[in-house]
Hints:
The chain has 10 helices and 16 strands. The strands form 4 sheets. The protein has an 8-stranded mixed β-sheet with strand order 1-2-4-3-5-16-6-15. A 4-stranded antiparallel β-sheet has the order 10-12-8-13, covered by helices on one side. Strands 7-14 form a two-stranded antiparallel sheet. By secondary structure, the chain is of the alpha/beta class. Helix 2 (11-23) runs antiparallel to helix 4 and helix 8 crosses helix 10. The chain has helices spanning 3-9, 11-23, 32-45, 101-117, 140-145, 205-223, 261-281, 301-315, 334-337, 371-387; strands spanning 48-52, 56-61, 68-74, 125-131, 156-167, 171-174, 176-179, 181-190, 194-195, 230-238, 245-246, 249-258, 285-290, 297-299, 320-323, 342-350.
Amino acid sequence: MDFLNAAKGIQNELISIRRDFHMNPELDFDLNRTVEKIKCFLDKEGIEYFETSRNGICGIIKGNGSKTIGIRADMDALPMDEKRECDYSSKIKGRMHACGHDAHTTVLLGTAKILNSMKDKLKGNVKLFFEPAEETTGGAIHMIEEGVLDNPKVDAVIGLHVEPNIKCGKIGIKRGVVNAASNPFNIKIKGKGGHGAHPHSTIDPIVISANVITAIQSIVSREIPPTDPAVITIGSIHGGTTQNIIPDEVEISGIIRTMTLEHREYVKKRIVELTKGICESMRGGCEINIQESYPCLYNNDDVVDILKKSGDEILGEENIVILEKPTMGVESFAYFSIERPSAFYYLGTGNKEKDTEYPLHSSYFDVDEDSIINGVIVNCKTVINFLNN
């Protein structure tokens, strides 16, 4: 099939769908309208699906073969106001598709429509993963727990993310680790409050906190190899009510980002050791809560080879950007990548003339809608190369 002409034939339909999603953004797992739109589309196309993970959807296109490939798109928006003024600006105050998930969902719908029209030629199956809550806790892990990777068993998964730093018409591909793992944490430093004029009769949790924060920063700078990326960010510190009162406790919160499982476990351990040691040495106490969040996203070389070959064939080798460095941002597609061989790529949406070079999560973010069909044709070609070749 000529995927480019097929995609151009539905381009206006896809742009209309994307703009509808953009004008009506929904958050987290609360995606009732978005899900209904997707279900209506799948029903119209005669694509089988089932609901999963509190407003997640798993569709399936059954071909003629035992191999199965999954394609994932996320659906949720961000809790922020849109400042960009256009015909399809968000109609809901405090909500905006500032990360391009409206485009991701639209690309997957377009991919599904084309592949379903030729399912008799597919030497295998295609599963469609519409994921909720990517921006919060991640719906992927719940979808996986509920069996979306089985019956039939999924052999590989692909996914994409729009990228304004890559020009529209191009895609970016990274081998190996693509995104960091994250571990949010909260620390409560416990002291003994009192009058600021008599610090000797108190145990000052603010001073203890200052030492803890300084020591934590030394983990990355002095205990992780400088060639290996890692970040510890303290995002908030709260304690005290006025100038002359030493409080009883201080609360610190932050997040760890690492690129390997080894460093992830090491940094968590050292934060606990340093915090407890400093608090004890300064006569205080502490409570530490380190949460498990998204793992590292790893691209599988074999699936990346198929993806790159598909990109070369459908877009031209000159439009494939080979990315050398991973990003410290996190991505819930990582849950799929640790369960099955996967390839995650970046869909270029930047266009200076169309003013679509604002960064992700900007209140002025938008995509060059010509990129939608690029995502569709790369997805379709990758599916064919995986299943049929």
